[in-house]
Amino acid sequence: MSRPISIPDHMLPADGRFGSGPSKVREEQVGALARAGRSLLGTSHRQAPVKDMVGRIREGLGDFLELPDGYEILLGLGGASTFWDSAAFSLVREKAQHAAFGEFGAKFAAVTDNAPFLQPSSIRTSEPGTRTEVVEEEGVDVYAWPQNETSTGVMAPVRRPDGVERATPGSDGALVVVDATSAAGGTAVDLQQTDVYYFSPQKNFASDGGLWFGAFSPAAIERIEAIAASGRWVPDVLSLNTALENSRKNQTYNTPGLAGLVMLDDQVRWLNEQGGMAWAAARTKDSSDRVYAWAEASEFARPFVTAAGDRSTVVTTVDFDDAVDATAISKTLRAHGVVDVEPYRKLGRNQLRIATFTAVDPEDVSALLSCIDLIVDQL
């Protein structure tokens, strides 16, 4: 019988959380939660203390994302997967086109494609680990894709499709709707290239799931209001018009999880104090560059995403030779308190997936890679 593999304590990361969501929560966020115990938790979300906090979050996100004039930060309950239903109801007039190059882009595409009140969607796909793009198409009024595909570690540029003019209020232009769930808070973006940039806060923003936030352009807001006035039936809990009206009051339609808002408030403040979007993007690039450089130099591992320009800076994926059991590596790491580096379950690869979100210390990433080398030597 083989002996259990032992990793010396001095080699281990100071914090062993590398999950792709939920993600590492900083100790200071937990402290903020404890301090909120008497003043916020267990109180009404329609009263001033909670509404003031939501207002701070909206303002802080606007500062971090460098919100253009006229754009608004909206929020609602249910997370990004619920937002897909809301977008089908409240953003797509007739037809959407999707770039689906992973699990989550494909899920949003399925929502609009199956909506009985919309035309079948145009869906452009590619093999896992590669990327495709949307293209100009007559009749399409929403173009959608994920900025970062969490399942595969592929990152896509955020830019309007060639030939598609920017939508403006009063125009008939198509909207660009970008899923930024695992990208926002850790990558750079020019919001002028989007009309809706939406995300759940359990990745770079290190909060709980169950909420969605988004930066909406004036054209997107006009689309929401026009569809609401069109007579299309939209459930109130999924209506973006309802979210718009409530967000402007710094509240949600129904009761949110206050603990997640408290942690998000602290994380947004921290990110802005560190230097905002530019600082966060540089930090995640530092961490992810360490992973890719290690994998490229390794004798037994390689980056899963072969095109260097498509590699994510916030969710890194590394394939291993058949002779090396990635499951055994992750099992050994977990026994030493280093957790959640398994690949996306449906991908089914001999792989590790290492999140390099903003809260993750780049030095902990280097320590993790040294631990993997040690484990492989002993397997």
TrEMBL record:
One of its GO terms (molecular function) is O-phospho-L-serine:2-oxoglutarate aminotransferase activity. This is phosphoserine transaminase. Belongs to the class-V pyridoxal-phosphate-dependent aminotransferase family. SerC subfamily. It comes from the Bacteria. One of its GO terms (biological process) is glycine biosynthetic process, by transamination of glyoxylate. Keywords: Amino-acid biosynthesis, Aminotransferase, Cytoplasm, Pyridoxal phosphate, Pyridoxine biosynthesis, Serine biosynthesis, Transferase. It catalyses: O-phospho-L-serine + 2-oxoglutarate = 3-phosphooxypyruvate + L-glutamate; 4-(phosphooxy)-L-threonine + 2-oxoglutarate = (R)-3-hydroxy-2-oxo-4-phosphooxybutanoate + L-glutamate. Pathway: Amino-acid biosynthesis; L-serine biosynthesis; L-serine from 3-phospho-D-glycerate: step 2/3. The keyword Membrane does not apply. The lineage of its organism: Bacteria, Bacillati, Actinomycetota, Actinomycetes, Micrococcales. Residues 140-338 form the Aminotransferase class V domain. Residues 1-23 are annotated as: Disordered. Catalyzes the reversible conversion of 3-phosphohydroxypyruvate to phosphoserine and of 3-hydroxy-2-oxo-4-phosphonooxybutanoate to phosphohydroxythreonine. Its cofactor is pyridoxal 5'-phosphate. InterPro entries: Aminotrans_V_dom, Pser_aminoTfrase, Pser_aminoTfrase_mycobac, PyrdxlP-dep_Trfase, PyrdxlP-dep_Trfase_major, PyrdxlP-dep_Trfase_small. Its EC number is 2.6.1.52.
